[in-house]
Predict the structure.
Amino acid sequence: MHRSIPINIVTGKRVCFYVPNKTVLRTFEFWDSDVLGVFRRAGLSKSLPPPYEENCKLDITKNMGTAPEILYPTAGVVYSLQGNEEVKIPLQAITDSDAGKLYWFIDNKYVIESVPHETVFLNVKDLGLTRKLYEVKVIDNLGRFAVQELRIGRGG
C-alpha cells in the first residue's frame, strides 16, 4: 500500500531511478483501482502518485508496481451464445493506482481501450468470434499486463 518512489526535485514528476541531489524519495499510497472506486463513492479523495517523466521507458515501468488483474471476462465461465442473440462480453481489470489506461487484446489483436475500474463491453458478433477458446490480454499504459482465457459456448 505504501511505496517510496523517486521524485524529480525540479519537475515534481516521478522518475525511474533515484539520483542523489536531483531526486528525493517520497512515500505514496498505492491503492488498487477497485478500492479507489470505493473511496470515491464514499466521498473520500486519495492523492495519486505523480506521473512518470516522459524519458522513463516501458521496459523499466513494466517492472514497477502491480500488474492488472482481469475481473471480466471471468475465469472458468463459458459465455454462451444462443441462436442469433446478441452477446456482449464484459472487460474489466483491477489496476495499480498509477495506471491511467488499459489496452485490451483478443488473441493479440487490439480491440478496445478503457480506463481503470471501467467495464467495457464487446459484441461477440462484431468481433467475429467463432471459436470456443480465446486469449484475452490487458496491458496498462505502464507496460504491465495480465492474460486470461475467454470461453465461448454455442447453444441451440
About this structure: The chain has a mean pLDDT of 87. Helices lie at 33-41, 58-61, 124-127. The longest helix spans residues 33-41.
